[in-house]
Amino acid sequence: MNKSVITNLLAAVIMVCGYLFALPIVLSIGLFALSGAITNWLAIHMLFEKVPGLYGSGVIPARFEEFKAAIAHLMMEQFFTEENIDKFLSQKGKGATHINLQPVIENVDMTPAFNALVTTVEQSSLGGMLAMFGGAEAITPLKEPFIEKMKSSLIEISQSDAFYDLIKQEIEQPDVMADLRAQVQSIVHQRLEELTPQLVKEIVQEMIKKHLGWLVVWGGVFGGLIGLLAALIA
Question: How many CB atoms lie within 10 A of CB 88?
């Protein structure tokens, strides 16, 4: 059982005991504690569920589109600003790990590069000599070593400070930065469009109820104290 259920049950037990044993002070404490706990529990419940006859209940599902728009605005105006992107790139250049392009390079097909090399050799002054030794077939065994060497060289270049500075300078161009933010914004909106009111409700509900459960507890505690004060001055 969660904190809300325990608080409500405890308040109800105190109220019943006060009634059964004819203890007015205990009855008042239990009654006020139960009313405070239930009121706070109902307020939390009304955030997520529509309660017939209670205006304003179910506010999160009802304001779903506004909720999505607020998330999109928060992402673009607080996280993916030009200043933050520039700051991120600057921090990367101050001893932090560079953008890792090795997985991309290792998966690139270098065959066209080797074929272009063969074509270049065939069309050069060495073409006649190459034809004497069997033509393009003579250098086919060099394909795999060539591809491995190319990938190794590209990885080494991509990890250099000079290469990173070039990328940073290019990205920091106004038109490039604007295009980058536009692409990020498109991705954010696309992901938000995949959200459903039910999914958003479950995500927010799980997060908020975990923390707002203490409102029910304190509602019961302060309600009980008010009940005690009411019984003493009655």
Answer: 11
Cα(76)–Cα(190) distance, rounded to whole angstroms?
14
Query: Would the pLDDT of 129 be above 70?
Result: no
pTM, entire model: 0.49
For residue 233, is pLDDT > 70? yes
d(Cα 169, Cα 163) in Å, to the nearest integer?
10
Are the beta carbons of 164 and 93 closer than 8 angstroms? yes
**How many other C-beta atoms can be found within 10 angstroms of the C-beta atom of residue 231?**
18
Tokens found for residue 175: 């038109």
User: 147-178 b/e with 16+ CB inside 10 Å = b?
Assistant: beebbeebbeebeeeebbeeeeeeeeeeeeee
Cα distance between the two ends of the chain: 35
3-state secondary structure (DSSP) of residue 13: helix
Residues contacting residue 136 through CB under 8 Å, at least 6 positions apart: 118, 122, 130
Residue 140 token pair: 């086919």
